From TrEMBL:
PANTHER family: PEROXIREDOXIN-LIKE 2C, PTHR28630. It comes from Gambusia affinis (Western mosquitofish). It comes from the Eukaryota. Signal peptide: none annotated. This is Peroxiredoxin like 2C. Gene3D superfamilies: Glutaredoxin.
Length: 224
């Protein structure tokens, strides 16, 4: 019997990506034995994240990136109960050393799972982009509030005031999002073209099966 492989998935993230979007062909068997590390430096096989349950796995550029920081700010607002009700794990993976996980979680208020791939093995084997591509049709991420200039100033300031002065990952590496599991099945895959090309969180969670509606708008709510 021929070996079953993960299906080819279409890279889409919202209306603007539905037409003319390239096919992203990934096979998780290529990366299932890659090591990831938790905040204590303990290693795990990548496949442990999705082997027994469906997982939303988000790869970020680097922990100093202002757009990644603001994206994870909003990920921190996802209620744990909504994930548990849907039987879904929410995971963020960075590409720094494990010592940067705890400070980044404290900075963003993120309390879900976070790991690092310091060698960028998974990023490279899955074919995530390095360098940025911008197009006229691209819309800015709804989760990034800072402009380019102020965002970079914030990133530089955080680098200068960090106890360990480093860039916390390859500055040119782009991230992405995958919905996978149980097993090696890939339900959805999106690779970022640039620092603003994030999957809108609400849309990503809905694809994964979360029923609860989430509002990440910074506008004040009117209570009736």
């Amino acid at each position: 019997m021929a070996e079953l492989v993960s299906p080819v998935t279409r890279q889409v993230s919202t209306e603007k990506w539905k037409a003319g979007t390239p096919i992203v062909d990934i096979n998780l068997k290529d990366v299932e034995d890659c090591l990831i590390y938790d905040r204590r430096g303990v290693s795990f096989l990548f496949k442990s994240l999705y082997q027994d349950s469906k997982s939303v796995i988000i790869f970020v550029r680097n922990f100093l990136c202002y757009s990644c920081k603001e994206y994870v700010d909003d990920l921190s607002k996802v209620p744990r109960g909504a994930l548990e009700e849907a039987g879904i794990r929410l995971v963020v993976i960075g590409q720094s050393t494990h010592q940067h996980i705890e400070p980044f979680c404290l900075l963003t208020g993120y309390s879900h799972e976070m790991y690092v791939d310091p060698e960028r093995s998974i990023y490279l084997k899955l074919g995530m982009k390095r360098e940025e591509t911008f197009t006229d049709s691209a819309l800015p991420s709804p989760h990034v509030k800072s402009g380019l200039f102020m965002g970079q100033i914030k990133s530089i300031w955080r680098a200068m005031t960090s106890p360990a002065f480093d860039f916390q990952g390859d500055l040119h590496q782009q991230g992405g999002a995958i919905i996978a599991g149980p097993g090696s099945q890939v339900h959805f895959c999106h690779f970022d073209m640039n620092r603003l090309d994030h999957m809108p969180i609400t849309w990503l969670l809905q694809l994964a099966g979360v029923q609860q509606s989430l509002d990440f708008s910074p506008k004040p709510k009117i209570m009736h």
